[in-house]
Design brief:
mainly beta; 11-stranded antiparallel sheet; 2 domains
């Protein structure tokens, strides 16, 4: 069964590669300062792009535009990128990549910088893997990197060059911005955006906060009741008479799912956590020389933690696939007509589902086998579950 689940996931992901990224209303500016309106394939770039796909109309031919052929492009109400030649320091920030040099080592590079705030004072970002750099300019001044660098001050100590704070204090002088406020600013987009927005507002300058345009609810809480189809096979290595094969039983389950949408790649990836109440109740009987009857009544709280991937079909519909690592917190259970302490093992869960209007969902989920008798030497078990889950997103 698990092989079939993997096959479905691979097929769906393959389909996703051809169908997910859409063209959206956009523009670009050519080297001759000519503005071209049309459609750009919105990849929601995690790393700054070096090229983009453009079409003048829905049915027009797709054209690849590069750093050499376009000086600026933007997707309306989403993002904007400008071509700039800048002095960039690429010093590493991981422990094994730190240098002993405090000063940044600049080299001239040309890139599309992502515009975060545009106004009298503008803020830009550049991302390439684990490299994150912020740039700024005021008025018509050249774009300059905000300098932040970790370095080794000795063999055992790590220090920080936070020159960006002095740069900000020198450039963003306004009655509403204090020295203490600048000193508390961290080298991250949220802090820097807040400061640039505050400066532009303080100066009475028109500005655009592109991050605000993209803001949305990235956290969802969903009520998820459903039905489990569960079977259990119990084996005793010392006596066959203690073996039992409990048939499939349909039982109720209910979970509350917390989901955080990752803010990149067009919100197609998320992290999910779903505390779930579930129970399994079934009977087993065998007749040979004597009539043997056994039963199980097992209740627990499951905690799946995993990753979800969305496949958008249209504006209101999307498929999703997810994989989770499941921990089970068991209480005492009635097994073989007596109360027994159950100690379970970890298992995996794989789901395939559909969501409509970011509100209603339906999921089929398959769980790999779970061991229920880790604390019993002569018992082993094969506990299997498949679930059908409906969901209603509260917010």
């Amino acid at each position: 069964m698990i092989k079939h689940v993997f096959s479905v996931l691979i097929l769906v992901i393959g389909f996703n590669g051809y169908s997910q990224i859409s063209f959206e209303e956009a523009y670009f500016i050519s080297n001759s300062d000519e503005r071209k309106e049309g459609l750009i394939r919105n990849v929601d770039w995690n790393n700054n792009p070096t090229q983009f796909s453009f079409k003048s109309a829905e049915n027009a031919k797709e054209v690849i535009m590069t750093l050499e052929s376009a000086k600026e492009f933007g997707i309306y109400d989403k993002s904007k990128y400008v071509r700039r030649q800048v002095d960039m320091d690429r010093s590493g920030r991981t422990l094994n990549a730190l240098s002993e040099e405090k000063k940044p080592v600049f080299q001239k590079e040309q890139h599309y910088l992502k515009v975060l705030v545009e106004g009298k004072a503008s803020l830009y970002a550049y991302t390439d893997g684990n490299i994150l750099r912020f740039f700024f300019n005021t008025g018509d001044s050249p774009v300059e990197q905000l300098v932040y660098k970790k370095y080794r001050s000795s063999k055992t100590e790590i220090a920080e060059n936070e020159r960006f704070k002095q740069q900000l204090w020198n450039a963003l002088k306004c009655e509403g911005i204090t020295k203490n406020e600048v000193e508390k600013t961290d080298y991250r987009s949220k802090d820097l955006i807040d400061l640039f927005v505050k400066y532009n507002a303080c100066e009475g300058s028109d500005y655009v906060n592109f991050e605000n345009k993209q803001k949305q609810n990235l956290f969802h809480l969903t009520l998820r009741p459903g039905l489990n189809s569960t079977s259990l096979r119990v084996n005793n290595t010392q006596s066959n008479s203690l073996n039992a094969d409990f048939d499939n039983s349909i039982n109720f389950r209910v979970g509350i799912e917390a989901e955080y949408i990752m803010p990149f790649n067009k919100n197609k990836w998320s992290v999910i956590v779903e505390p779930t109440y579930q129970y399994f109740k079934s009977d087993y009987s065998r007749s040979d020389r004597t009539v043997l009857k056994k039963s199980i009544d097992y209740t627990s709280i499951e905690l799946p933690v995993g990753i979800r991937h969305y496949l958008f079909l249209d504006e209101t519909s999307k498929l999703f696939i997810n994989g989770s690592f499941v921990t089970d917190f068991s209480s005492k259970a009635s097994i073989f007509n007596k109360f027994t302490e159950i100690k379970t093992g970890f298992n995996l869960a794989f789901g395939l589902g559909y969501k409509h209007d970011d509100k209603y969902s339906l999921e089929f989920r398959y769980f790999s086998s779970r061991e229920l008798f880790h604390n019993y030497k002569f018992y082993n078990s094969d506990y299997k579950t498949m679930s059908v889950i409906v969901g209603y997103t509260l917010f």
